[in-house]
Amino acid sequence: MGMSVTISAAAEQDAEQIFRLQYLCFQSEAALYGNYRIDPLVQTLDSVREEVAADCVFVARLGEEVVGSVRGRLTEDGAASIGKLCVHPRLQGHGIGARLLRAAESALAEGRGAKRFRLHTGHRSEGNLRLYRRVGYETVGTAEGADGVPMIVLEKQAGAYAATA
Q: In 25, 46, 76, 87, which residue has its Cα 20 to 30 A from 62's Cα atom?
């Protein structure tokens, strides 16, 4: 390829690429649960635009192409909710997801005062669970997604973000 993947804050003009990438990446999750109504697949482009404008959103780029993204926002309890982490299927397994997580965690802790990070993933999503546990997240509970998918809730303290690789 000759190009390296860079991580940066998302810009308004990235919303459409994020929207398309998210739709591509979450097909495998939908298939895993037999549910094609999961939030990342039914989210509208306007909603993605709103998140890019209001939340802490990072993208991974290969040249001009957005090949990964993640979103985070501070919640009422002072935790940072991180979600919709995705990496283009052809680039998975190369540490891009961990780099995106680290960027979001750093910005949420340093820029927005997050004391801990929280994320959810489907209970059958073994690849996601391996990544999250490898970068320091621990299971703290379960929940049911709005789409009915059983979710595992994971957290880690903000001071641990520097350890992610």
A: 46
Alpha-carbon dihedral 49, 13, 110, 40, rounded to 10 degrees: 40
Neighbours of 25 (CB within 10 A): 21
Q: What is the pLDDT of residues 119-157, one digit of tens each?
A: 999 999 999 999 999 999 999 999 998 888 899 999 999
Q: How far apart are CA 19 and CA 44, in angstroms?
A: 8
- 64 touches 100 (CB < 8 A): no
User: CA 84, CA 104: separation in Å to the nearest integer?
Assistant: 12
Rounded Cα distance between 160 and 163, Å, is: 6
> Rounded to whole angstroms, how far apart are CA atoms 51 and 73?
9
State both tokens at 45: 């482009």
Which residues, 6+ apart, have CB-to-CB distance to 43 below 8 Å?
A: 19, 22
Question: Rounded to the nearest 5°, which phi and psi values hold at 21?
Answer: -65, -45
Which tens digit of pLDDT belongs to each residue from 31-44?
A: 999 999 898 999 99
Give the C-alpha separation, 91 to 104, whole Å. 19
